[in-house]
Amino acid sequence: xxxxxxxxxxxxxxxxxxxxxxxxxxxxxxxxxxxxxxxxxxxxxxxxxxxxxxxxxxxxxxxxxxxxxxxxxxxxxxxxxxxxxxxxxxxxxxxxxxxxxxxxxxxxxxxxxxxxxxxxxxxxxxxxxxxxxxxxxxxxxxxxxxxxxxxxxxxxxxxxxxxxxxxxxxxxxxxxxxxxxxxxxxxxxxxxxxxxxxxxxxxxxxxxxxxxxxxxxxxxxxxxxxxxxxxxxxxxxxxxxxxxxxxxxxxxxxxxxxxxxxxxxxxxxxxxxxxxxxxxxxxxxxxxxxxxxxxxxxxxxxxxxxxxxxxxxxxxxxxxxxxxxxxxxxxxxxxxxxxxxxxxxxxxxxxxxxxxxxxxxxxxxxxxxxxxxxxxxxxxxxxxxxxxxxxxxxxxxxxxxxxxxxxxxxxxxxxxxxxxxxxxxxxxxxxxxxxxxxxxxxxxxxxxxxxxxxxxxxxxxxxxxxxxxxxxxxxxxxxxxxxxxxxxxxxxxxxxxxxxxxxxxxxxxxxxxxxxxxxxxxxxxxxxxxxxxxxxxxxxxxxxxxxxxxxxxxxxxxxxxxxxxxxxxxxxxxxxxxxxxxxxxxxxxxxxxx
Length: 594
Prior knowledge:
By secondary structure, the chain is α/β, with parallel strands linked by helices. It has helices at about 5-20, 45-55, 55-65, 90-100, 140-155, 170-180, 200-220, 220-235, 240-260, 280-290, 330-345, 360-370, 405-430, 430-450, 465, 475-490, 505-515, 520-530, 530-550, 560-585, and strands at about 35, 40-45, 75-80, 85-90, 120-125, 155-160, 295, 300-305, 320, 350, 380, 390, 460. Helix 17 (about 505-515) packs antiparallel against helix 19 (about 530-550) and helix 17 runs parallel beside helix 20 (about 560-585).
């Protein structure tokens, strides 16, 4: 499929050619084109080019203007200030470019694919086996899912990896307790033959974990037996592994229920936890030691860094293997890098992980570079994210000071959103089933959008009252904008969306059209920087342009000529399709009726 060339690109090409004609020694000169409030575009590159050529900027700008042909693309071009160029495109060019987007046979709205796509492994949504998911797991899941979908949409091959915590010393305690109390993971409430729910699975795991911990802390003999099971687990004892697998399977029932509530699709094949790299740990350590990247220090295998020191000024190493022979997180993470680079053939490794782990990943990535596993061709990057805060600006906790369970947070958001949907349901004629479904889409969308509309590295306040508000920068505002357009299209009768490039456009039509034209370039920019908050900002601006347009330009009116009605229907239809596609890439649904 051939992507649609944007107006920005067309104008850029035209100005670049005129610059080269005026200054032949500056082939492919960049006019530094930007959107402008004074005109449709402003070119700021002439000042620097004139300085380099020792020319007068205004004279050079005038020469460029003289060489630009005014035609179906450019309506007007003028010199401004010391040598800026203000460019206005024609109404015909706006409508025709949008028409090309609307008729894209692949229904990609003209969004281009990457020129040189590669393979990205993205590590996100990393819950722990036998433990509940809490608010701290929200951002990794939501940001990771959006980045994965955006990268896939622009043509990147994406391999998803959910690096769950399914290994470690706590499993000795759990396995030993379950062996001595074999019915503790039996279903307590599901009927015979009924599928176990995620809540039931987590309830069983919670009960078992608390009982095992109480016994471990109070019974020295049990503690000894539990520690022996850790050795059996690491040695691959079949019976111990079988019991361990029960914990993993029970936890997955719960994980999948939470991800389903989050409206995220997680495949079992994408879940490769810490245990998935056990067979590589010894070789990873051997390779690091033989290459001199890691050295033995006080019995442990360590990697040292000149710029990482503790409060006492002494070097703080990355411990790959402990002095007792056990492996830490570093060994697993380094083995995962080897697997992702050499087996999965990744060009890029993305880790959507809390900013508080930044030092660990800095050390892991540097170790992998020294070992030659990462290089100029293969890069690793942490997409670090900030903390979810309460209204008081402190880390989000329950009134009892406990970490908020993710399912409780989502349930409350859905309840609030359902109440908002119900208020308008009678006017729209929604059934009870539609109210329930839309309440879920609006509630989960509200939580996701609040997260994604904030730059990942920043903390953000979790305020449900604001999140489900119909006003302001919220997903509900965008969802209602989409539903409003769907309502207009349903009321249009025989009138159909049809572009009419020959028509003059009102100012609000132009503003909406010019914003729609940016969608393709915006998505490539979002994908390049892994910044879904830029897509959220674009969609909010799009909905705002729609609101202004709708207030000033009546779409369905007998007073308007048929061509005007069709062209305005075309504009709102393309806006709806762009909102729908953009929101889908953020993992948010857009109901037809709200």
